[in-house]
Amino acid sequence: MSQDPNPAEALASIRQARDTLLPPATYPISYDLIYGVICGLLVACQGLPQPWSLLVLVISLAGLALMVRMWRDRMGYWINGYSPRRARWVAIGMVVVFIALMGGSLYGRYVGPDWLFLVTGALGFVTAIIGGRVWMAVWRRELAETGR
Amino acid sequence: MIAAPTFDPVIHAPGRLQICAILSSVDEAEFAMIREAIKVSDSVLSKHLKQLEDAGYIAPRKAPIDGRQRTWVSLTAAGRKAFAAHVAELTRLAALVPAQA
Question: What are the domain boundaries of chain B?
Answer without folding.
Answer: 9-90
